[in-house]
Amino acid sequence: MKSTNPTQSNLLGYILQVSATLVRRAQSNLLGYFAAGLLLVAPLGARPDQAVQDAIMADALADSSAHDFLTRLCDDFGGRLTGAPGNEGALHRTIEELKALGVEARLERFKMPGWVRGQDEVTMLAPLHRQLRVAALSYVQPHEPFEAEVVDIGQGRAEDIAALDSPQGKIGLLAPHTSVPRGQYEAAALKAGMRGILWINRVDGGQLLARTGSFNGEPLKIPVYSVTQEEGNWMLRLLQRGQTVRLRMHTRSYCTEVDTANIVVTFPGRTADTVVIGGHFDSWDLGQGATDNGLGVAQLYAVAKQLQAHAPQNLRTVELVWFNGEEQGLWGARVHAPTLKDRPVAAMVNLDMVGFPLSVNALGFDALVPVLEQFDASLGARRLKQGVANVNWFGSDHTPYQLEGIPSITFGAHIEPDKVRYYHDLADTIDKVDPRMIPESSATIAALTYFLANVEELPVRRYSPAEMKEIFTRAGLEPRMRGVGLWPFDYTADNP
Q1: What pLDDT digit, counting tens, does each position of 259-291 carry?
Q2: Which is it for strands 121-126 and 246-250: parallel, antiparallel or unpaired?
Q3: Single pTM value for the model
Q4: Cα 280 → chain centroid
Q5: How does 283-313 read in b/e, with b if 16+ C-beta sit within 10 Å?
Q6: Residue 446's pLDDT is what?
Q7: Per mean pLDDT, which range of 44-58, 194-208, 258-272, 276-290 is the poorest?
Q8: How far is C-alpha 101 from the geometric centre of its chain's CA atoms?
Q9: Chain center to CA of 456
């Protein structure tokens, strides 16, 4: 407990004097008056109670129920592609399971550009006949089957494609580690009259990492697919030897508007100041979405359970949000963040594939660093191995909150490479999740939630567009954000 100031000391002394008099006069009334006195003092000196925080951590560490919940969700509904029946069913199951904990949750519905995967096919016709293992990027549109030759477009830069002899009517083979943002290589290929793109996967072992084709939900003008590294490199070798590679491509996937929802749980605080803890609910459809982002789904469940048991009311309001549509363009966070425009939000914490925690990341918000260092110190023997980081990055649900000027936080965490490699593929299944991971990560996350909800030193302020532009620019994120259409700063009053 923080030491009281002189005013508080005088008030406390007065209360004690009154209490002593009341004891002598009517001992039975002591508890009522003393409790009333404490209610006057407590909000003035409210701080995280180390005993409560320790109890939250101990209970979370010993509790496997969040892992069990995720197992049921994965096995009963499979992948949770936004707008698909599995996603909708999993939403309602999650509401039911939270209700069983005594936690009131609500669906906040919204519409977004959706996409339905069809039976898409890419078949090699020459130099031999073989159906390739591919996955269409979201927002591809259906088309009649066509045949075309393959050409190596390297990184997919406009100059790479312009240097080709005759790219018109061909299918481009895109390098796995291209630095060209999604959308730009498509535009360059379209300008050259190309008919499609195969993006070589960056992970070997016959894997396909599903991806979005558009952060803004715009239908792609030409089909873009992910192809296995092995088959992509095979075609590259054939091309380098001067052989002709000819493919047949048929896309049946299609775009459609979908009705979906975020799940929101609110624990009202003694003030309107708010801490948002969020993680995306949706996944790609190839696997079960266990690692990406079933981890965050289960961790939010665990945080709700621990707050309900140990700290249902805090100094600040705590809002837990399970976002939909993250994988296709951060849609759920882009819907929710603006609803906080008129509310005092102290911080947003994003849980995206948080394995065994190694660090807590201030994401470029320097003012958060001392608070997070104080939190790390409060963990005692469970202090984070890498302490506090301050590195901003782009591409998950914290970004829309940053764009609203809200200080944001993530974690650095460890997942075994032989497990995390499957995060967008068929094998992202619950058996890849170490049973210890959710209890151990949830203990740290729940402790941070309680700490942020009560620590007095946490500033509550909105960063201006000019300040946010500087934070993103300092981290070198402007080119990528421009490339996907999420760079608003050229159009604000602060940045004419």
Answers
A1: 999 999 999 999 999 999 999 999 999 999 999
A2: antiparallel
A3: 0.89
A4: 5
A5: bbbbbbbbbbbbbbbbbbbbbbbbbbebbee
A6: 98
A7: 44-58
A8: 24
A9: 27
Query: How many angstroms separate the CA atoms of 214 and 194, rounded?
Result: 18
Distance CA 424, CA 138 (A): 13
How far apart CA 61 and CA 444 sit, in angstroms, is: 9
Q: Write the pLDDT tens digit of every residue in 11-36.
A: 334 333 434 433 344 343 433 333 33
Closest among 271, 170, 204, 269 to 418, alpha carbons compared: 204
The pLDDT of residue 182 is: 81
Round to whole Å and give the CA distance between 339 and 82: 21
**pLDDT band at residue 230 under the 50/70/90 scheme:** very high
What residues contact 197, with CB distance under 8 A and at least 6 apart? 153, 156, 171, 172, 173, 174, 185, 186, 189, 222, 223, 224, 225
CA separation for the pair 290, 294 (Å, rounded): 4
| pLDDT one-digit tens code per residue, 442-484 | 999 999 999 999 999 999 999 999 999 999 999 999 999 998 8
Residue type, 374: Q
Task: Tell me how far apart the alpha carbons of residues 490 and 476 are, in angstroms, rounded to a whole number.
Answer: 16
Which is nearest to 236 in space by CA: 163, 171, 151? 151
Are 362 and 302 in contact by the 8 Å Cβ rule? The answer is: no
Backbone angles phi, psi at 111, to 5 degrees: -110, 150
Q: Which two tokens stand for residue 421?
A: 């490699």
Say if residue 319 is exposed, middle or buried (CB neighbours under 10 Å; 0-12, 13-18, 19+).
buried
User: What secondary structure letter does DSSP report for 138?
Assistant: B
Order of strands across the sheet with 130-131?
130-131, 121-126, 246-250, 146-154, 171-174, 196-200, 224-227, 134-136
Reply yes or no: is the peptide bond before residue 127 cis, omega within 30 of 0: yes
- In this predicted structure, the answer to whether residue 123 has a pLDDT above a threshold of 80 is yes
H/E segment holding residue 112? strand 106-116
Read off the tokens for 10. Answer: 């005088």
